[in-house]
Amino acid sequence: MMRRAMLLAGAGLVLIGAAAARPVTYALPPEKEIILPTGAGGELTQAQCGACHSLDYVQTQPRGKGPQFWKDAVGKMVKIYGAPIEPGDADAISLYLAKTYG
After folding, report:
1. Which structural domain range is residue 82 located in?
2. I want to staple 70 with a disulfide (CB 3.0 to 4.6 A). Which of 46, 59, 63, 97 is the partner?
3. Does residue 70 surpass a pLDDT of 70?
């Protein structure tokens, strides 16, 4: 009985603390427009990849990984994350990324 009373009292203190908590606010840095380098497949890559995530994600991938890395990366976006990219477009994007960043 005493244990139950202590648990209830502790739960009450948690609720009081939660009610007194103030919301945390913060400022995000301004978004910057990222334009991928020109090249065959560049506009397609800009549109398809940029539709789902920041193009910072593309630019911060490790360099020198080669065509298979990019083919796998684009394949993951399609198969795992459901990116609506047609197979021919996925090949063009992978080739562009390999030439530009690989």
Report:
1. 43-101
2. 97
3. yes
